[in-house]
Design brief:
The chain is of the alpha/beta class. The protein is built from 5 helices and 7 strands, in the order αββαβαβαβαββ.
Length: 172
């Protein structure tokens, strides 16, 4: 009789927990509302003109979108202008921030991650998945590592078959 060889997938059989940031990605269009085009001669904001823009702008185009409001020029824009934008946009958007698209993405991820009970990872061997079909800001990887460290037994980065060790609790 011939002895059968059984191939064992050690990755599947291991006790590794894969933390996949794709699971926390919020679908939806991300847009920037840059008010530079509302500035007089690209330098200053005129209240009357800006209020006309607020009154006549098609706000419905932001329906269910994630929006970052900003001014990409070096102009000094009064705070109230951004507040007026926020008041109008809030009726339509999924989420709104003042800042860049990257800052918007970070905040969207942080909102999703804030619902995690990090203590559920107590004594786990965690692999923070590196490859993703979505762009995950580096700041989010930093957040996840710092939130997992107090609880996990070990942290790794990459794929379960090929990881970079980040942290391992000492046995003492």
């Amino acid at each position: 009789m011939k002895e059968e060889l059984q191939i064992i997938n050690k990755v599947v059989a291991s006790s590794l927990v894969t933390f996949n940031l794709e699971d926390y990605y919020q679908a939806g269009e991300r847009v920037v509302l840059d008010i530079k085009d509302q500035l007089y001669e690209g330098l200053l904001l005129r209240e009357k003109d800006f209020r006309n823009f607020i009154k006549n702008h098609n706000w419905a185009q932001y329906e269910n979108k994630f929006v970052a409001i900003t001014c990409s020029t070096e102009a000094i824009v009064p705070t109230w202008a951004y507040m007026l934008l926020a008041i109008e946009l809030k009726k339509y958007v999924k989420h709104l921030i003042f800042g860049s698209l990257e800052e918007l993405e970070i905040e969207i991820f942080r909102n999703a991650l804030s619902k995690i009970e990090w203590a559920d990872f107590k004594d786990a061997k965690v692999v923070i998945k590196g490859c993703s079909k979505v762009d995950v800001p580096i700041a989010i990887y930093v957040d996840v590592a710092s939130n997992l460290k107090p609880f996990a037994n070990s942290l790794m980065f990459g794929e379960p078959c090929s990881t970079v060790p980040l942290f391992k609790k000492s046995k003492f």
